[in-house]
Amino acid sequence: MTILVTGATGLVGARLLPRLLAAGVDCRALVRAGKTLDGVNCVEGDLFDSSTLARAVAGISGIIHLAAVFRTQDTDLIWKSNLEGTQNLISAVKTHAPNARFIFASTSMVYESGSHPGHEDDSLDPKHPYSASKVAAEQALRTSDLNWAILRFPFVYGDGDGHLEALPKLASAHKLHPATRLSTIHHRDVATAIQLALNGSLDGKIINITDEAPTSIYELAKLVGEPVESSSEPLETPWRMHVDGTLARSLGFKPSVRTVYQAIEERLL
């Protein structure tokens, strides 16, 4: 079983790939020119070159599509990368590996209403370009006739990625209330969910992948030594960054890092 990974050198991919290799998965990666990865068959190219995509997907049994653009002011680039790039990859898989399982990494940021924990059946109309482009890419995959699974990840952290440590500045930049509670997931359990998807347990489903304890920005900032100012002002959208993980549990997903506090105790940050 050969699995193609896009975004293999990104925040998630760089920590997922070693775990896949350790589990004995034969991995191939789509990479920029001159890039090599230990233990991985690297195919040079990108999501906008059909000839390289044909080589990348030839003979694969599955694909983990992580590549995406997020933190930029270039809206056109976000849409081009996240939607058009995904559409190009879908087209290549349909042509050259139509029986491959297509696993798409999406985001819990698609839930913007904030009236309850985000649920997979919610109607979505996100306004942020990143979230909106992800919803559009999800739809492209859902209507592709491929075998797919869509995993919506919340705030990913751990393994020295610095993401949690950057949260206080991100919260300040986006004017997030300190009582805002974030659903989170450790890189170890991103891999847990991906393995479930590779095994077929999540076929044809959209699934929120989250741990067991949404935690406030105030608490998280304090945990990483960058406290934020407290506030007693009411939260206008109390559920906005909190997702419902019930479906994932019913399908066999069980996080091994259940809380951020456990990650700290076990030195997994």
What does this structure look like?
α3 (75-96) links the parallel β4 and β5. The protein has one domain: NAD(P)-binding Rossmann-like Domain (Rossmann fold), CATH 3.40.50. The strands form 3 sheets. The protein has a 7-stranded parallel β-sheet with strand order 3-2-1-4-5-6-10, with helices on both faces. It has a two-stranded parallel sheet with strand order 7-9. A two-stranded antiparallel ribbon has the order 8-11. α3 packs parallel to α4. The chain has helices at residues 13-22, 50-57, 75-96, 129-142, 167-173, 187-198, 217-223, 246-250, 260-265, and strands at residues 2-6, 26-31, 41-44, 62-65, 101-107, 147-153, 155-157, 181-182, 184-186, 206-208, 215-216. The longest helix is centred in the N-terminal third of the chain and has 22 residues, at 75-96. The chain contains 9 helices and 11 strands. The protein is 34% helix and 17% strand. It is an alpha/beta fold and 269 residues long.
